[in-house]
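2 proteins. here.
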Amino acid sequence: MGFMDDAKETAKAVGDKIQDTWEDTTDRIGDKVDEMKADADVKKAEAERDSVKARNDFKEDLRDD
């Protein structure tokens, strides 16, 4: 029965390794998605800032005339 016990332990170890790898992969994907969302939020905020600045500069130019 030693052979069967070894085979079961090996199969369990392989299964655990596969599960760990899967969890690591899903964590990395989630991290990358979070990073991409943060980058998109920054770009949106920068675009809004530039838009407000341009609008304010235009208004200021109108006031000066």
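next one coming up
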Amino acid sequence: MRKIALFALLAGIILAAAAYITEMNDLPGAVELRTPGFIGYIFIISAIAWFSVHVLYEWGKEADPYHH
């Protein structure tokens, strides 16, 4: 799952950056890249959420009060 989240994060960064660069520089295809750019933001948010939940899970396992 870690590899999938990392791939989603990298793909999201690429998609969002491509949409941002084309929009800011008025390049052709800016309108068509809005949807992939939005999908890129969703990928970024999802990957960061997974990494955050994974870190919290690992911290919770280390501090489990019932298993000394």
